[in-house]
Amino acid sequence: MTSAHLAARLDRLPLGRFHRRVLYALAVAFVFEFGDLNTFAYAAPALKKYVHLTVNDVAFATSASFLGMFAGAVLGGRFADRVGRRRALLVSVTVFSVFSLLNAGAWNVPTLALARLLTGVGLSAMTVAATTYISETMPAAHRGRMQAGVMAIGLLGIPIMSFTARGVIPLGAEAWRLVFVFGGLGLIALPFIARLPESPRWLLRHGGDAERAVAGIEAETGGPLPEPEPADEVVETKVRYRELLRGRLGRRTLMLAVAWIFQTLGFYGFVAWVPTLLAEHGFSLVHSLTFSALTTLGAVPGALLAWVISDRFGRKLPIALVATAVAVCGLAYGMTFNAVAIVAFGFCVNALIQTFAALIYAYTPELYPTELRNSGNGLVYGLGRLSNIAGPLIVAAIFGAFGYQPVFVYIGACWLVVAVTIGLFGPRTGMRNLEGIAGEPDPVARARTVPVTE
């Protein structure tokens, strides 16, 4: 089987039982992954009140978490390219779930920071493996919307976790520990992921039985299938990790790295700090948690918006427009102190950043060839997480020196950088097969055209 023939067979498929299994299995994992990403943001006000953490302590623990996410994304990306997407998913979900439980036992700032760092390793490794698996197994006509569907269901974890925190944290000085149990429940996803097949595209590149995997997927459609559309083959050249930093792939990596760095600074500058900033600005702990919890209700509608627009309008233009809208709504949020306006603009920001997330999660792995898809995805995602080691310190410094509103000017500026970068330099990917987007060669041609040596 050639890569073009495999792509044609996968892209002709209607959405069927296999695609639904992928949707639900990964959505369950994302429910607890997204919930865990936000646990510290909601526990932080209680930690400040009961454990007497300072704003700088919160920034230190948050930065440790993002250092772990960087390591998990980069190392996990390479791990998944070597051992397979399915195995990487099983390992990463286990890692973030187990270490999330250890957060509940932290007794000081260093132990809390260490627990957040190790949890972050599993969180990012799972994210890059999952988004790559979706890209490689979904038909081209549905790739964006299925990525958004997984996100929409998974994002239910944020309001579930936030309202759980709202109910649990005020119960007592130690109740914040219960919030971290939420991420540990990610172990529930393991049996569902274990039943998924390995990515046929990965199997083809690594000498596995891609034919059997594709035939199994086809059998789950439950009906006759159209003939695969003919596709041109491309000559093979061996792709090594360093190629991510050279030539056409290097330019894509640079463009994506800038976008991921500034979207991460803008995303977590808002999501991770809003409860703490509201409390610091004079709102009570209960009001801060209530306002923050209500704004998270925008997350699921935001991902569903991506479901509607992603495959219809492609990824590039919607990403640029949505990033601009986040900048505007985020600035409006920071300029008001009316409770209703805070919730309304906060709802819009949470909705739009999840629209953006669903789009960028679909867009990033599309730009790399199969052999480096998870590595490239992990590298740029990891660089975004690495940048946010400084992110909390930047927010704390701006807040300390200039006050509440300038923080949101900074957040808006980050999102505008993303919009300009993708809008000017991002390639279009909608409705194209992955091999065509990546300019990916055919492994079957290797033996008859170009000899490859390590």
TrEMBL record:
The chain crosses the membrane at residues 21-43, 58-76, 88-107, 113-134, 146-169, 175-196, 254-274, 286-310, 317-335, 341-363, 383-402, 408-426. It holds the Pfam family Sugar_tr. The keyword Transmembrane helix applies. This is MFS transporter. CDD domains: MFS_SV2_like. It is a multi-pass membrane protein. InterPro entries: MFS_dom, MFS_sugar_transport-like, MFS_trans_sf, Sugar_transporter_CS. Keywords: Membrane, Transmembrane, Transmembrane helix. The keyword Nucleotide-binding does not apply. GO terms for cellular component: plasma membrane. One of its GO terms (molecular function) is carboxylic acid transmembrane transporter activity. Signal peptide: none annotated. It is found in: Cell membrane. Residues 22-430 form the Major facilitator superfamily (MFS) profile domain. It comes from the Bacteria. Its main location: membrane.
